[in-house]
Amino acid sequence: MREGAHPGRIAVYPAQNVPQDRAAGPCDPVHGVPPSGGSGRKITTREPIIQESERPEPEGFEPEATRRDADVAESSRANRGWWDRNADEYQVDHGTFLGDDRFVWGPEGLDEVEAELLGPPEDLKGKEVLEIGAGAAQCARWLAAQGARPVALDLSHRQLQHALRIGGSFPLVCADAGALPFADDSFDLACSAYGALPFVADPRLVLSEVRRVLRPGGRFVFSVTHPIRWAFPDEPGPEGLSVSASYFDRTPYVEQDERGGAVYVEHHRTLGDRVRDIVATGFRLVDLVEPEWPAWNSSEWGGWSPLRGSLIPGTAVFVCERD
Q: What domains appear along the chain, each with residue ranges and CATH number?
């Protein structure tokens, strides 16, 4: 019997190790509705972080940035480690913008409340929803507030510890998006706001897994960095407005240690690549949203800024359905 995920516990599965127990139904302890009861201690992401990070960077360590190939295993290993080491800083830096129970699709601040890309909020009640790359599970928490039955999945155990810190009455699962530990036809909806897809070497593997666990007619909505951004420097100011690289260069961006081992990997797919990946894995693309930068948003987030956002898109949101 596998250990189930429930409030106060994170179910952990090895990266790229698909459990044999896929015959379990959608209400098994791993991804079914957790025991009823309190939603856990409600605190803010701005409070002091939980215990010291378990894998600090070596003192003085500065990774080398390069462009080179990185396969599925190396990408998964590097990004699990990177997010475990940097989850605390990420939640401190972006927790205020993300909130504890808000569903935003990207740095522009496109909110699911207005966008309704998963459907009208009133229609979410009772729906079983998988959030992939959930981080501290802000989106899953919002979904739960609408009456949905979410499961929050992330590669990083440290990110999910922050989900525990904030609280919630839904399952947390630590697993690789390319090997989802769920039975076929388990979920009505799936979503991913900048989770998994930008960091995997084989996006079709992830898309195929998501389609497998969705029920017929299910919808998968995911957001990623807009592909055009790869042609520009990752800078929020004027220096980020001039093309510096080929849009068609799919070579991954890699940060590596002194031995040449990857410690962070991000993969580029052109807009056409994304569409072909979606169609090849059996989804139907029903919408492609390119959020405009709103006047109210004065935030800078890495290379995203009001200056750049007023001129070029920063996020692409793909709305897909399984027939």
A: 64-322 (3.40.50.150)
